[in-house]
Structure formats: C-alpha cells, structure tokens
Amino acid sequence: MTNETFEFVTPSEVIEYMYCPRFIYYMNSLKIEQHEKRRKLVLKGREMHELKLIQNKDYIRKKIGVKEKYLDVYLSSPTLKLVGKVDEVLLLNDDTMAPLDYKYAEWTNKLYKTYTIQQTLYALLIEEIYQKEVNQAFLVYIRSKNHIQNIPITQKMKSKAKTIVDEIFDILNLNYYPKATSTKRKCQDCTYKNICIS
C-alpha cells in the first residue's frame, strides 16, 4: 500500500476508470503498469496522432468555423484536479472555444460515453484556463476519412464529469479497493484479469 497523496488525474485515467474502477487502483495505488505499448493498435494510433499534428488541417477547421487554433496544448488545473494534453484548442467564430481530438478509430454512428466524458473534461479545463465558454467539442475519426463529429457539452455533462473525478480521488486518496465493472465481458481482455479478485 502507498501513502502517496494524489493531486491530479488525466482524462485518460478517467476513461480507464469508466472501463473498470479497478484500473485506477492497480495503476495508481499499486503501480502495476498495463504495458499498453505492446499493443499494435495503440502504437499505430500514436503514430497517426503525431502525423496529424504536423499535417495541414485547415480544411477541417474551415468546416467548423475556427477563428484561431492552438496545437498540442498542455492543460492543468489544481482546482479541477486535472491535467492533460489536447490535440487542439479552437477559438470559434462565436467567441466560444472547443477542444478537438483526433481518434485512430472508425466512426460507427455511435458516440461512446468515454469519449464524451474525456472531451467534457477538456472543456472544463479550457473554460478555466482561457475564461471562455465551451459548449461543444469535436472528434476527428482518422479511419473514416477524417469524419468530424460534433459533441454538445452541457452543464449536466460537466457536473457528471466532476463527480467521476471525485470518485477517482476517493479511490486514490482513501486507498480502497473498488468494485469491479459489472460488465464481465470486459474482463476477458483485461491486463489485470490474472490478479483481479472477482
């Protein structure tokens, strides 16, 4: 066990928590790595991510009415207890702002909850740091010919995202072993399935 006090989590860690709360315990409290670098799809996604950051993307920005853009932005807030890096922060023509993220994935006409929460966390960070309203986010699906998907960001979503962060800090700072996911099919391909107590 550790007596370490945690001050920040990342949007990626929030996604891991949403997949299964025990990910947070194994990764952060017990310091057991996932070794995700071995996964071919993850590596390919990272390569594509780096490529997209250096390519000309003005055609995407014109479609969504962008006045200014900031690339590969590091965001941090002690108040929100969040830290992360977003592919782009956009200032839109209506003077609101929005995060834009590239996903090495296909658009299947379904917006996953993990993606919406991740973008909501970026929205909260952008609002605090830039002092601009954020009411939407954008995902670019690389494997679907750069399909752009708009995500409305509501106050209800922002409140939900903050609640999830608080739940994660309960696990980290109170150092308790959380319940596993109720979706047992997730366990089949889990990095921690051999050590997880069912």
Q: Can you walk me through this structure?
A:
The protein has 198 residues and is of the alpha+beta class. It has a single domain, classed as Lambda Exonuclease, Chain A. The chain is 38% helix and 21% strand. The protein contains 6 helices and 5 strands. The chain has a 5-stranded mixed beta sheet. 26% of the residues are buried.
SSE layout and pairing:
Elements: H1 11-19, H2 22-29, H3 40-54, H4 58-63, E1 66-77, E2 82-92, E3 97-103, H5 113-130, E4 136-141, E5 147-152, H6 155-174
Parallel strand pairs: 3-4
Antiparallel strand pairs: 1-2, 2-3, 4-5
Helix pairs in contact: 1-5, 5-6
Quick take:
With 198 residues, this protein is an alpha+beta fold. Helices cover 38% and strands 21% of the residues.
